[in-house]
């Protein structure tokens, strides 16, 4: 299906342009800088930027930083990096906090129009008096203060005369409205806290629902796209735009947020995983953050293709995480060199191969993409193979190595297992094999066939490497009635192995990606790798039963 067939907002934009309701599309991506972005945010980023791109409009990156307590410049920087890495360029870079003055003026305007009042009730009282879906709310005893008194009190709130929670400013709408959000919502509160951008200039801060439509209006945003939870807020969004007499008249549209199986998707929860050191930072490859996916080895292309495929709708759903994996396989299939790595090494001595000799074999870099050329790999008397490519007592249909059996070494020769060497504990520590020089790969040998092909790395020049294999950090199936996500943490989410790669990969640099024969796609970890000592994160295994 085409991208446009699964994006209803695109249809709206096209109609708005055709009808002349807007002359240019302006969207924005408005993260709160209180954590790192996750794959859910990627969906919103792709939606907003691609929509504007398609209609030759503009997209702003706007930090929705109206809550001083949780926000931090570290998050601001990480968000910029992640949006750029995904491949998008913002037109304007803005901070909602830069509009505090204008928002304050709009609050004054509402007070003067008799549409806002200072309430002395506590937050708890206000919540209690809001009513329910079936019961109307109770009007505050302070609701009918005069404009003068409200102006005076609001000014004194701004000057810092009151403590946190002592007073709030509320919109005066309708305590009996069937939409609870219209029952005199709080629009300003007192927070004596240092703000990452405005410092100590303010001790009153606008509430999100009041600030957001003003931010959109100030920037001339035409289509303000948010997730479905905000649908009930739309009447208040429109109320603010109307009564604050903004010049631009932005409109809000809602779409379904992305949920993935086996994944928690909330900055608050992800922050908890970081703070409690369940993971090694926001960019731990097990995290669904954009930085974690990048470090795991995901590419921007794969993430964008995934976002396009899942589409934009109004219905709630959970996307199978294997669909994301499908897109990274597709992206790397023809791009990543296919090399050999031994993750759990077992030494093999080829007894009839001349001692001290090395030959260089030609190996194709990608059997599905000839343009990637070939490389040369060494072969000699001692190699490493995978431990589980040998079984002393093979089950039926086991075609790899066992005593007396012959297999093909990828890119090399047939070898036959002649002898098994064990340590005192009875563990297999080495195999003694013979090879047949007639069977060299590419020689056209057809004398006999073998059923198994295994991979290997020549021992004397092998590069020691660390491999990290991942499982989901959180597992849905462990979900209990009242278990928090912290109780669903998979204790086996990370397995670390020490093995070897081909010598040509000695200088693999951070973020280089490979397909290791039979093991899947791996990324060179940009933080933990050292020169000559790479660490590989497994991005995804080779096959999945999942079909898009
Ligand atoms: P979280 O609950 O994870 O902190 P948020 O919505 O509070 O998410 P914001 O920083 O406010 O995070 O989000 C910025 C934008 O990203 C918003 O427009 C929001 O709708 C969108 N967004 C957040 N999570 C998702 C998601 N899972 N799927 C799609 N869009 C999302
Ligand atoms: Mg949030
Ligand atoms: Mg939010």
UniProtKB/TrEMBL annotation:
A motif ('KMSKS' region) lies at residues 264-268. It comes from Cohnella xylanilytica. Keywords: Aminoacyl-tRNA synthetase, ATP-binding, Cytoplasm, Ligase, Nucleotide-binding, Protein biosynthesis. Pfam families: tRNA-synt_1c (PF00749), tRNA-synt_1c_C (PF03950), tRNA-synt_1c_C2 (PF20974). It comes from the Bacteria. It catalyses: tRNA(Gln) + L-glutamine + ATP = L-glutaminyl-tRNA(Gln) + AMP + diphosphate. Residues 453-525 form the tRNA synthetases class I (E and Q) anti-codon binding domain. Residues 24-333 form the Glutamyl/glutaminyl-tRNA synthetase class Ib catalytic domain. A motif ('HIGH' region) lies at residues 31-41. One of its GO terms (biological process) is glutaminyl-tRNA aminoacylation. InterPro entries: aa-tRNA-synth_I_CS, Gln-tRNA-synth, Gln/Glu-tRNA_Ligase, Gln_tRNA_ligase_bac, Glu/Gln-tRNA-synth, Glu/Gln-tRNA-synth_Ib_cat-dom, Glu/Gln-tRNA-synth_Ib_codon-bd, Glu_tRNA_lig_a-bdl. SUPFAM superfamilies: Nucleotidylyl transferase (SSF52374), Ribosomal protein L25-like (SSF50715). The keyword Lyase does not apply. One of its GO terms (cellular component) is cytosol. Its EC number is 6.1.1.18. The gene is glnS. ATP binds at residues 32-34, 38-44, 227, 257-258, 265-267. This is Glutamine--tRNA ligase. PANTHER family: GLUTAMATE--TRNA LIGASE (PTHR43097:SF5), GLUTAMINE-TRNA LIGASE (PTHR43097). GO terms for molecular function: ATP binding; glutamine-tRNA ligase activity. It is an enzyme of class 6 (ligase). Residues 336-436 form the Glutamyl/glutaminyl-tRNA synthetase class Ib anti-codon binding domain. Belongs to the class-I aminoacyl-tRNA synthetase family. The keyword Isomerase does not apply. It is found in: Cytoplasm. Monomer.
């Amino acid at each position: 299906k085409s991208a446009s067939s699964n994006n209803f907002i695109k249809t709206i934009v096209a109609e708005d342009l055709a009808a002349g309701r807007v002359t240019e599309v302006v969207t924005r991506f408005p993260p709160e800088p209180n954590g790192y972005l996750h794959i859910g945010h990627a969906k919103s980023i792709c939606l907003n930027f691609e929509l504007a791109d398609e209609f030759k409009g503009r997209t702003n990156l706007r930090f929705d930083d109206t809550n001083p307590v949780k926000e931090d410049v570290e998050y601001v920087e990480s968000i910029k990096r992640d949006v750029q890495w995904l491949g998008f360029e913002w037109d304007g870079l803005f901070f909602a906090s830069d509009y505090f003055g204008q928002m304050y003026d709009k609050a004054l305007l509402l007070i003067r129009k008799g549409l806002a009042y200072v309430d002395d009730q506590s937050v708890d009282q206000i919540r209690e008096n809001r009513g329910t879906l079936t019961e109307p709310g109770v009007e505050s005893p302070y609701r009918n203060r005069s404009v003068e008194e409200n102006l005076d009190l609001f000014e004194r709130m701004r000057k810092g005369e009151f403590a946190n929670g002592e007073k709030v400013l509320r919109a005066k709408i309708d305590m009996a409205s069937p939409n609870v959000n219209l029952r005199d919502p709080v629009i300003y509160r007192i927070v004596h806290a240092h703000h990452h951008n405005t410092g100590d200039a303010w001790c009153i801060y606008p509430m999100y629902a009041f600030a957001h439509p003003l931010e959109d209006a100030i920037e001339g945003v035409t289509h303000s796209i948010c997730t479905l939870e905000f649908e009930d807020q739309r009447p208040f969004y429109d109320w603010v735009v109307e009564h604050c007499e903004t010049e631009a008249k932005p409109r809000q549209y809602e779409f379904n947020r992305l949920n993935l199986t086996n994944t928690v998707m909330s900055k608050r929860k992800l922050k908890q995983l970081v703070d409690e050191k369940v993971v090694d930072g926001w960019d731990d490859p097990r995290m669904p953050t954009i930085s974690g996916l990048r470090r795991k080895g995901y590419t921007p292309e794969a993430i964008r293709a995934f976002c396009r495929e899942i589409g934009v709708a109004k219905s709630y759903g959970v996307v199978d995480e294997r669909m994301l994996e499908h897109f990274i396989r597709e992206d790397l299939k023809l791009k990543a060199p296919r090399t050999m790595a031994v993750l759990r090494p077992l030494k093999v001595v080829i007894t009839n191969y001349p001692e001290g000799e090395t030959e260089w074999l030609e190996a194709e870099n990608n059997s599905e993409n000839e343009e990637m050329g070939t490389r040369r790999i060494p072969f000699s008397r001692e190699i490493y193979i995978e431990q589980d490519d040998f079984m002393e007592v093979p089950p039926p249909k086991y075609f790899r190595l066992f005593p007396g059996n012959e297999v093909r070494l990828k890119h090399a020769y047939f070898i036959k297992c002649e002898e098994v060497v064990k340590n005192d504990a009875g563990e297999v520590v080495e195999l003694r094999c013979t090879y047949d020089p007639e069977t060299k790969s590419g020689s056209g040998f057809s004398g006999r066939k073998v059923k198994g092909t295994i991979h290997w790395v020549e021992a004397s020049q092998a590069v020691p490497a660390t491999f990290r294999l991942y499982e989901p950090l959180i597992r849905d199936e462990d979900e209990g009635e009242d278990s928090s996500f912290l109780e669903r943490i998979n204790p086996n989410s990370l397995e670390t192995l020490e093995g070897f790669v081909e010598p040509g990969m000695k200088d693999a640099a951070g973020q280089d990606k490979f397909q290791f024969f039979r093991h899947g796609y791996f990324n060179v970890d940009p933080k933990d790798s050292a020169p000559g000592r790479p660490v590989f994160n497994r991005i995804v295994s080779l096959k999945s039963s999942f079909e898009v």
